[in-house]
Amino acid sequence: MNSKLSQQMTILGLCAMVFYAVMLATGVLSTEVMPQFVVSAVLFLSSGRFMRKAARSLPERERKEKQKSRTSEADWPWLAAIVNWIFALGILAGMAIWVMTPIGVSFLEALQHTLAHEQFFAGAVP
Fold this sequence. Notes:
Transmembrane segments: 12-31, 76-99
Number of helices: 5
Number of strands: 0
Largest sheet: none
Keywords: Membrane, Transmembrane, Transmembrane helix
Distance between the termini: 59 Å
Mean pLDDT: 76
Radius of gyration: 21 Å
Low-confidence stretches: none
């Protein structure tokens, strides 16, 4: 368990909370759906804390073995961080798309409506 991963999870939780606050402030979300999003942000925040506790509770021998194996590897921590952030941003983008789709409308119907709307405005420009 990497302490940097726990920090990344905590930052992701804070970003999720900011995202939900912006969605609420702009009026995209109503207050009825906010509790479930706040719960997901709290889960991100608490998972970072749990990872940090688990990393501290590792026996000293395991920590030394992990550090020894890390030094011989070819820059895996950097690559892992990049992959973590890509997936985190992908999850947030998916949640944003899911949240912005109106109730009672499927994602494909909303996408077709958006494309038709864009074609209407593209044809109106001389």
